[in-house]
Amino acid sequence: MASLGARPAHRVGAVLDDLMALFGRRRDTTGEAIADFWAWWSDGGSGQVAMADSGPDQVRLLGPRVELIDPNLSWELAPGSESAHLLVVTADGDPDLRATARRWLAGAPPSDFVWSYADSRQPAASLDGRRIGVDGHEFDLGSVQVGVRRTGSRLDVTVYHPQMAQVPADKRITLCFHALDVALGEEMTETWIGELAPVEAPPLDGFGLTGLRAVVRDLRGEFTDENGEPQWISLQGNGPRGAVIAGAQVPLAAAWAPQFDQHIVITAPYRDRDDAGLPDPAAAEELERLRSHVTDRLEGQGRVVAYECSGGTCQVHVYAEGSTPAADQVKAAVAGWANGAVRVAVESDPGWAGVAHLRG
Question: What highest taxon heads this organism's lineage (predicted)?
C-alpha cells in the first residue's frame, strides 16, 4: 500500500535561484511573489483569465506567475460551487509546499460570483458521469469500487476499477489518488485516508465513491465538533521510561493546518508523580495550565497538538508557522516553570512526522 505523501502530478516550471538581500539576509521572495500575484490579479489579471478562450492562454497567464511563487506548486481552474470559476493552487501532496499554498490562499481577495479560491482540490459536486484521465485512458468513476478498513481515526482504502489492469503498475496509484481527490477533495483525502492501494479484483463488501463520501463524513463528524475543531483522544502504553500517558488531537494531520510547518517540542519535568512515574493529579493540573499558557502566548500562530508523559518528564508537541516568532513566544511562555529546567527544541516538519506515532 502507498501512504499519502507526495503524489504524482504535473509540475510547473524550473528551479528558481534563491535571492539574497543586503548583508546576507534572505529576502522573503515567496511573500513578495505572492503579493505580486495578487496585485496583478486585482489589477486586471482575474478578468484576463476569465476571458481567456483556451487552456494554453490560461497557462500563459497563470503558469509563470505561480512558478514565481514556487516552481513545484500545481494549479488548476474548475467550476466553483458558489462562483463561476474556482482557482486552485495546491501543493499536490508535497508537505514542503503546503504552507506556501496556504500563504497564497491567505492573500486572496474575498470570493465573489465570478471567482473563488482554494489551496487544495475540492470535491466534485456530483460524481454522476464523472470521468478522469490517467496515462491516456479514461475512467468512469461510477465503476470504482472501494474496500475500507478503519485503523484508529483513519481509513485504509483499496481501489478497484474494471480497467485497472490496463494501467501500468507505476501509474495505478495515480488513478487511486485522482479518484479520491474528485470524490472527497484533496484535504479530506490527506486528512482521513491512511493507506491507499490499487487492486485488480473487486473488494469483498466493496461500495462506490458516493458511499466512501458518507463513511468519511461520518468519521470526520466523530472526531471534530460543529465548527470543525479537532477532538482530543487519550492514549496509554509503555516506553523506554516505563508507563506512558498521552493525548492528541484528531485529526493529527498536516493537511488540517498546513500553515503550521514548524515542530516545537517542549520537554518539561514534573515532580509530583505516582508509583508508575506518571503525573499525579496536582502535576497533571500544572501541566494542563502550562499547555493552556503556551496556547495563549501563540495567539493563533500555532497550537498544542499532542503531549506524552512518562518517568517524570512531559513532552508537549506544538506546531506553528515557521515564518512567525512562535518559537520565541513558546520559549518565553515556559521560562517560569517551577518544576525544573525546560528544554525547547525547534525543527522544520511540514509533514508532522514528529507526531506520527501518536495518530490514533
Answer: Bacteria
